[in-house]
Amino acid sequence: xxxxxxxxxxxxxxxxxxxxxxxxxxxxxxxxxxxxxxxxxxxxxxxxxxxxxxxxxxxxxxxxxxxxxxxxxxxxxxxxxxxxxxxxxxxxxxxxxxxxxxxxxxxxxxxxxxxxxxxxxxxxxxxxxxxxxxxxxxxxxxxxxxxxxxxxxxxxxxxxxxxxxxxxxxxxxxxxxxxxxxxxxxxxxxxxxxxxxxxxxxxxx
Length: 205
What we know:
This protein has 205 residues and is α/β, with parallel strands linked by helices. The chain has helices at residues 16-29, 44-55, 60-84, 95-105, 110-121, 136-143, 157-173, 187-201, and strands at 4-9, 34-38, 88-92, 128-133, 178-182. α2 runs antiparallel to α3 (60-84) and α4 (95-105) packs across α7 (157-173). The mean pLDDT is 93.
């Protein structure tokens, strides 16, 4: 039995965490065993790499390579075994974030990102991705005062504009996998969008 792999994307401040918790409850109510995880991170090694990426100065290519190193360990140690055991894996960020942040935001070329994704993932990718889309200025207002910004969250607004464009490009390339959610609405209205997608993709058996 193969489990489900669902990822959640969007710029910082889009409200992913609130919705992921509700989605986990939705699947558990159906009897699924749910694994909640995140990127960067998800395993002891990847969490150490996360701390470096979010706090230590580095150039864009170093950042990209650390992201994919953590992703490889995350896949090998957690995601792939969980899927093989028939579990539902809900991952806060995955490879789309690398294309959006290091590709769109940092300006690294697709010719560098695409081979890395192929090597590291070796065919494992989400079957469904929720993209919580939000104007960067609104996201910045939501983040303000919520917590101290990490190295990536502290980037200027134009960085997040480019990252948003990166997510839009990924959605255009994979319309069957990536579903855009209007994250500018209230949490309840956002959940209504999400629940409609879940009900369509995973009808009750």
